[in-house]
Amino acid sequence: MEDILYVGINGEVLAIDVYHGKELWQTSLKSGFFGSKANEDVTLLVDRGVVFAGCHGNLFALDGESGKILWQNKLKGLGENDVSLAMERVIKNT
Asked: How many structural domains is the chain composed of?
């Protein structure tokens, strides 16, 4: 997973091989009005093989290797604006 660059653009998430520039997969985040995705910003965050994508008032979790959408949260009642993402890792002593 560390040799993959994830790109979010126009309602799409792409995985790119960083050494060859080859597209590994592309996933459409059909979230807008009637599935529209043109000019939709996509915010990405990657953690433990999961790509979290915020787009048009929706939150998606994608499998980092295949691009398969694992789940979607429509963030109901919050509008259809850009979505900002942040995560703090808490390491537990065992």
From this structure: 1
pTM, full prediction: 0.83
| 63-76 tens-digit pLDDT | 999 999 999 998 88
Residue 61: C-alpha distances to residues 18, 22, 28, 75 (Å):
22, 22, 12, 13
| Residue-number span of the structural domain to which 10 is assigned | 4-73
Query: Could you tell me which residues are beta bridge partners of residue 62?
Result: 51, 69
82 assigned to some structural domain: no
| Core vs surface per residue 46-63: b (16+ CB within 10 A) or e | beeeebbbbbbbbbbbbe
d(CA 44, CA 13): 9
CATH number of the domain within which 64 lies: 2.40.10.480
* Alpha carbon 52 to its chain's center: 4
